[in-house]
User: What shape does this take?
Amino acid sequence: MKNKKIILGLILSALIILSLVGMIYSHQTKMDNQTKEDILLVKERVAPDLMAIPGVVGVGIQKGQIAVYVKEATDEILSAIPLTIEGYSVIVIESGEFVVTQTY
Assistant: This one.
């Protein structure tokens, strides 16, 4: 009898956790769609200013953050790039230069 209560309690706990995860995922997906549109607009708006910084070779979006690709992450470049832009975190990725290897 005691084992049945434990098993029933574990099953009930698992169902509660799964339903909470489902609710969070559903809410997050709706937010992600809006956030993706918003961050894309912000990135497009600020990309020309970021690309004007010597050493910046690209601007993108990565994991909900504005990604700034730099040839070399020097102190001078890092100090010129803001930590956040319009509420979005900015990450700096040392990528070297981008080289086109094939065109279509």
Remarks:
- Residues 26-31 have pLDDT under 50 and may be disordered.
- Residues 2-94 form one domain.
- The radius of gyration is 22 Å.
- The longest helix spans residues 2-51.
